[in-house]
Amino acid sequence: MTGALLSVRxxxxxxxxxxxxxxxxxxxxxGEVLCVVGESGxxxxxxxxxxxxxxxxxxxxxxxxxxxxxLVDLATLTGAQRRLLARTDWGFVRQHARDGLRMQVSAGxxxxxxxxxxGQRHYGTLREAAxxxxxxxxxxxxxxxxxxxxxxxxxxxxxxIARNLVTHPRLVLxxxxxxxxxxxxxxxxxxxxxQLVTDLxxxxxxxxxxLAVARLLAQRTLVMRGGEVVESGLTDQILDDPQHPxxxxxxxxxxxx
Amino acid sequence: MxxxxxxxxDAHYNFGYLDESTKRMxxxxxxxxxxxxxxxxxxxxxxxxxxxxxxxxxxxVTASLIGAQDxxxxxxxxxxDTTNAINxxxxxxxVTGVRTTESTPEASIVPTRHRIPETPLREGQIMVFQVPIxxxxxxxEPSETETRTMHALAEYGAMHVRLYEDIAHHGHIATTYDxxxxxxxxxxxxxxxxxxxxxxKLDGNPALMLFGAGRxxxxxxxxxxxxxxxxxFEDHPFTVERWSxxxxxxGSRESFLDEIILDDQGTxxxxxxxxxxxxxxxxxxxxxxxxxxxx
Lengths: 257, 295
Description:
The complex is a heterodimer of chains A (about 260) and B (about 300).
Chain A: E1 6-14, E2 20-28, E3 33-38, H1 44-51, E4 59-65, E5 71-73, H2 79-88, E6 90-93, H3 97-100, H4 107-117, H5 123-136, H6 153-165, E7 171-175, H7 183-199, E8 203-208, H8 211-217, E9 220-225, E10 228-234, H9 235-240, H10 245-252
Parallel strand pairs in A: 3-8, 3-9, 6-7, 7-8
Antiparallel strand pairs in A: 1-2, 1-4, 4-5, 9-10
Chain B: H1 20-35, E1 41-42, H2 56-65, E2 71-72, E3 75-76, H3 83-96, E4 99-100, E5 109-113, E6 126-130, H4 144-152, H5 160-170, E7 181-183, E8 187-189, H6 199-202, E9 208-213, E10 218-222, E11 228-230, E12 257-261, E13 268-272, H7 275-289, H8 291-294
Parallel strand pairs in B: 2-4, 3-5, 5-6, 6-9
Antiparallel strand pairs in B: 1-10, 7-8, 7-11, 9-10, 12-13
């Protein structure tokens, strides 16, 4: 686990003793993109919640490279430190943009919120940062003061990503970021994501049930089923030469063009 | 000024309307509130002979503190003679028999609705504010567990989102009342719906400021000489309201002015919201103009 940004060991979090994720271990290195694929109810989202401490793990441990000072067991941090980490060094992108956005305030305020939360108190600077990120997300900066409800689904999702990236986090967790978008918008968003992770050297964990997302973005992939990881490895390896019967089923169910 | 008719004490009620154990519970909560400036302390709010929203919090706090030697002044939107002010004054006169007054320097305890008197307060006086919603973070976060955690960790950064929105839409901070403050460099507090004009008066005030929210069942306090800072941005500092007019009655340019529409043609005049302050100034001017008449 040397050089890793995040290290997960035997992580278990179940909701009722059965459903959830069990005994998951993996390492994530800086700048690496990991996809977690699997059917609905296989524990993908639970894994994301458990390792970001939104749902406290029941056993196992999560180690994170806090302040570039080496791996620290998140369980040893105080609640306040974990919340600070989640606000500054991590991002969390939800499937439905309206769950991750503050819908009653303008797009600019949504983007600038994290900066204000870490103590930025200059309106001009905040506005500049917000408009810079909006442009970067390929949204017209003139729409800075519009409410997110006035934006299309794809734009809302990009806004949510901007809101998370404004503090330059090193780790972004995404829960089905493209699932609620139509195909052409999906493609555009994936393109943008790919560009962002390379430009910013972001490490990302992307939960998806779409193998195309994994193929396009991820260096490595975890395949989950029934709460457990059934196969993990390099994305190309898994998609081209699946070993586990479930992975073989998953890969063969993709429409061949 | 002290023309209030004397009201007999009604001995059927316990002194101060509330029973003694309730008053003690409230005083304990208030002691804790004073010890932790700006922190919201829960208390067991009682049924009062008026509905929630009419100031049950302020009345309960007043009832728990008032003693036979106290002199009571009641303010309603700056005024001493509105229905609410008169009725609350009469209520306390009836259940305690204390002397009532309209004069700020004479009063020892001042329940108020949404104003701090223009006349400076002194040590030993107590202001009691009625609070509709005590939680400053409520609009941001509906969950009580979450807001309490935010208070515990002093996570107040997101409160600036509201000010950001104001500037983005209006070009300046358009919040004019219930303007959020940080008390003693620690807790964020709603100063009750006082105009932001009164916020600077909270800062380092020699009087004790108590806040009671009856429906929300919370009390909090700003002890004497406590720092109270209003939120702002570096490039949009906190400012108070200014008027181009002066008071039509007393000519004051320093006090908080109410705008009164006089007819359908839009004729308007500005007068002091603080009636006692305005009355004092008018009396002094009359005295200066015709000193021989007074003799």
